[in-house]
TrEMBL record:
SMART domains (UniProt xref): PKS_KS (SM00825)
UniProt family annotation: Belongs to the thiolase-like superfamily. Beta-ketoacyl-ACP synthases family.
Positions of the Ketosynthase family 3 (KS3) domain: 13-426
Class of this enzyme: transferase
Residues passing through the membrane, by range: none
Protein's GO biological process: fatty acid elongation
Protein name, as recorded: 3-oxoacyl-[acyl-carrier-protein] synthase 2
Protein role: Involved in the type II fatty acid elongation cycle. Catalyzes the elongation of a wide range of acyl-ACP by the addition of two carbons from malonyl-ACP to an acyl acceptor. Can efficiently catalyze the conversion of palmitoleoyl-ACP (cis-hexadec-9-enoyl-ACP) to cis-vaccenoyl-ACP (cis-octadec-11-enoyl-ACP), an essential step in the thermal regulation of fatty acid composition.
Entry GO MF terms: 3-oxoacyl-[acyl-carrier-protein] synthase activity
Involved pathway(s): Lipid metabolism; fatty acid biosynthesis
Catalysed reactions, semicolon-separated: (9Z)-hexadecenoyl-[ACP] + malonyl-[ACP] + H(+) = 3-oxo-(11Z)-octadecenoyl-[ACP] + holo-[ACP] + CO2; a fatty acyl-[ACP] + malonyl-[ACP] + H(+) = a 3-oxoacyl-[ACP] + holo-[ACP] + CO2
The protein's Enzyme Commission number: 2.3.1.179
Assigned GO CC terms: cytosol
């Protein structure tokens, strides 16, 4: 990588900042609660409660706990939303309030043009809970007896649609479906839309909820999920004993805003988003390219987009799924791009505490990366006890670090070879 020329490749355009954050995830029902738990290495993984099959080989999941949709919406509305959409509405409520965009009556604040405010919320699978429920209903009572809300509850774009409808956001509303990379793609695409003048504001990220017998059976049978029944030794990214990921669920959303627009309305600026890269391994439907080339290239694209040198990066919130191939491939990619600086980088996987949220992962990890910069605290890779000699970087094992972070990256690597990476920096 020609770092001497990288600054010349930075894309010109409007500056984009983050002014709001919202999340619902296995570690908490708000940004404050969940990041406090993440900082302290508290694992949100526990025995599965969503379905009961005693002989099921997978015992653990990262379920959202004590979630009450009626705190965020009317009962009638909740009945017509799959849980992945309920999570998005809850996270959006926090993010919009955090950004100072909601009046006391719940409407969009004065001075915000809804036609320049878009919505981009990814989901990898959509309303699988509803699909399973309605399929069983159809098998039992006939398929013309399924709910008339079945389709709008189950389609993956409906989280974005419901959030847009809730606040009257009339800019572009979309849903990238790109497996585990979707949430990061949503953030990056939103950043480019604002930078290039197509929007002034975006609410973006990812949401997912598919802790169901069908989904868990499918992921388990392909060998992706750990069979560990010890919550502290199940999701262990970069550990020599890692044996697969833990399914998680939840949502993470960010409000992105053109810098001058945020300044003029006296918004609280959390940090700036400055770079984005996306590509494809074009290698295999589920396995990453073992050379790490695709992941390395997406890091390079992101750095070039931001005009940032590799040695300027302080921290990477890694994809870090706790699978043998991903963690090794990601480590190779970091070595290839960052060279000697890779030894100085702080890297951690917050999936060690949340599990893997699939299409919601990039959104939640985007929230955590922004908080890392805002608070100057790098979260740990919890329960990383046994070093893998092939994963030889500083993964901030077990205990977080208080450290000033000026530039941070978050990457996501998904089935189908989808790769995405975003870069944030302190304002």
């Amino acid at each position: 990588m020609d770092s001497g020329k990288i600054r010349d490749k930075a894309k010109a355009g409007r500056r984009v900042v983050i002014t709001g954050l919202g999340t619902v995830n296995p570690c908490g029902l708000s940004v404050e609660e969940s990041f406090e738990n993440i900082k302290n290495g508290r694992v949100g993984i526990a025995p599965i409660t969503r379905f009961s099959e005693p002989d099921f080989s997978v015992k653990l999941a990262g379920e959202v706990k004590d979630f009450d949709p009626l705190k965020y919406m009317k009962k009638k509305d909740a009945r017509h939303m799959d849980i992945f959409t309920q999570y998005a509405v809850a996270a959006a409520d926090e993010a919009m309030k955090n950004a100072g965009l909601i009046d006391e009556d719940g409407s969009l604040a004065d001075g915000v043009d809804p036609k320049k405010f878009g919505t981009d919320i990814s989901s990898g699978i959509g309303g699988l809970t509803t699909i399973e429920e309605q399929h069983l209903r159809g098998m039992d009572k006939g398929f013309e007896r399924v709910s008339p809300y079945f389709i709008p509850m189950s389609i993956a774009n409906m989280a974005a649609g419901q959030v847009a409808i809730r606040y009257g956001l009339k800019g572009m509303a979309t849903c990238p479906v790109a497996a585990c990379a979707g949430g990061t793609l949503a953030i990056g695409d939103s950043f480019h839309l604002i930078r290039d003048g197509y929007a002034d504001m975006m609410i973006c990220g990812g949401t997912e909820s598919c802790i169901t017998a069908l989904a868990m059976g499918g992921f388990s049978n392909m060998g992706a999920l750990t069979k560990s029944d010890d919550k502290d030794r199940a999701s262990i990214p970069f550990d020599a004993e890692r044996s697969g990921f833990v399914m998680g669920e939840g949502c993470g959303l960010l409000v992105l805003e053109e810098y001058q627009h945020a300044y003029d309305r006296h918004a609280n600026i959390i940090c700036e988003i400055a770079g984005y890269g996306a590509n494809c391994d074009a290698y295999h439907i589920t396995s990453p390219d073992p050379s790490g080339e695709g992941a390395a290239d997406v890091f390079k694209l992101c750095l070039e987009d931001a005009g940032v040198l590799p040695e300027e990066v302080d921290y990477i919130n890694a994809h870090g799924t706790s699978t043998k191939l991903n963690d090794l491939t990601e480590t190779k990619a970091i070595h290839a791009v960052f060279g000697e600086h890779a030894e100085k980088l702080k890297i951690s996987s917050t999936k060690s505490m949340t599990g893997h949220l699939l299409g919601g992962a990039g959104g939640v990890e985007g929230v955590f990366t922004a908080k890392t910069i805002e608070e100057g605290f790098i979260p740990p890779t919890a329960n990383l006890d046994k070093a893998d000699p092939d994963c030889d970087l500083d993964y901030v094992a077990k205990k977080g670090i208080k450290q000033d972070v000026n530039i941070a990256m978050s990457d996501s690597l998904g089935f189908g070879g989808h790769n995405a990476c975003i870069l944030m920096r302190k304002v």
